[in-house]
Amino acid sequence: MTTPRRWWPSTIRGRLTLLYAGVFFLAGAALVALTYFSLGQVLSHQLTVQGDITHQLPEVHDAIRAQFQRARDDTLNTLRIASLILLGIVGGIAGGLGWLLAGQALRPVRRITATARRVADRSLNERIALIGPNDEIKELADTLDAMLERLDRSFDSQRRFVANASHELRTPLTINRTLIEVALTDPQANESLRQLGARLLAVNQRQEQLIESLLTLASSEQGITKRTPVDLAGIVRQVTTESQSTAQNAGIDIRTHLQPASVAGDPVLLERLTQNLVDNAIRYNLPEHGWVTVTTEAIGDQVHLTVENTGARVSTSEVPSLFEPFRRLRTTERLADVSNASMSRGAGLGLSIVRAVAHAHGGDVNASPREDGGLIVRVHIPAV
């Protein structure tokens, strides 16, 4: 449904200018009308007086009255035309002055908007710090500064929590994995103990991956504090190379079409984004003769990363829910190499992390089903 176009300006400055000009025109038109009416009354009174004087001279009365009537009409017509011309000229000047005055009055608002945009794109450390009289605009700026201060403290507290949780959650899992591995190296361990140890290692690895995914999701949703130039094509090349053995065991062919794609961001998060996309494309694929195609390219001011894979048919209605945490497709998972713990059924955080990382880099991600089955996932990130 298209939004109907409005005939009035869409900016406050334009509306204020239109308001100033409209008020001036109304006031000027009222002044012209009053002047025209008053002058008409005065001239009519003079015409009446002259008529009374010449009333006793019938031979000249009609001629003088007609002459005064023409003079009165000519004077009023000249006044009307001159007033309308001057009203238009002065109205245009008033509109220009109104535009300048509106811009001057809205300058603090533009400063507030610019600061809010910089804060949204970079960090919460900057403040508006508006200097001026204690009017409504300064009150708005001070309120926004107070809100930014609270948000900054909240995000800083969340960062510290993630950092502490990262250590506190990883340490016991690392200790458990080490203890299990040491127990399995015991030459006196029987076969049942070794099988139990292998299962515990798989469970431990799955817990490590889940915690790592949750921490990555939390850190990426906080935004990126430091950006470095990185070639996304190089990250994709590294990830696909490392995933070749897993894909070959699953009977999946990985194809790449990589063009230089420079972005500014966090290389670790971008690598995790790419790894999640490739892992999902391998995990949810055909049991045999499947393929994954990864493409990078730079178009205009955007870098595009596209991951396309074969697989089961996906309903269009299911696609939006894929990017929600702990959501999976109702279709069956891939059938090959399920013994590999790193490629077993995931926790449903892969695409959630992809979306969070893309948004943290000022980009976006979308997916669409293939006609023959599988998905096409496209990530768009601003280029350097």
Relevant terms:
single chain, 384 residues, alpha+beta, two-stranded antiparallel ribbon
**Assembly state:** single chain
Instruction: Give the CATH level 1 class of the domain at 226-382.
Output: Alpha Beta
Shape-level CATH architecture of the domain at 226-382: 2-Layer Sandwich
Mean pLDDT: 80
Helical amount among residues, as a percent range? 55-70%
Strand order of the largest sheet: 2-4-5-7-6
State the CATH superfamily name of the domain at 226-382.
Answer: Histidine kinase-like ATPase, C-terminal domain
Number of helices: 8
Label the structural class. alpha+beta
What CATH calls the topology of the domain at 226-382 is Heat Shock Protein 90
Low-confidence stretches: 332-344
Sheet-strand content, in percent, reads 5-15%
The global form is elongated
Output the helix-strand order. HHHHEHHEEHEEHEE
Q: How large, in whole angstroms, is the Cα Rg?
A: 38 Å
E-strand count: 7
| Largest beta-sheet characterization | 5 strands, mixed
Q: Span from first to last CA?
A: 35 Å
Report a brief summary of the structure.
This protein is α+β, with helices and mostly antiparallel strands.
Notes on the structure:
- With 384 residues, the protein is α+β, with helices and mostly antiparallel strands.
- Among the domains are: 12-121; 226-382, Histidine kinase-like ATPase, C-terminal domain (Heat Shock Protein 90, 2-Layer Sandwich), CATH 3.30.565.
- The chain contains 8 helices and 7 strands; from the N terminus they run H-H-H-H-E-H-H-E-E-H-E-E-H-E-E.
- The strands form 2 sheets. A 5-stranded mixed β-sheet has the order 2-4-5-7-6. A two-stranded antiparallel ribbon has the order 1-3.
- Helix 1 (12-53) packs antiparallel against helix 2 (58-121), helix 3 (136-184) packs antiparallel against helix 4 and helix 7 (267-283) runs antiparallel to helix 8.
- The longest helix has 64 residues, at 58-121.
- The protein is elongated.
- The two termini are 35 Å apart.
- 20% of the residues are buried.
- Residues 332-344 have low confidence and may be disordered.
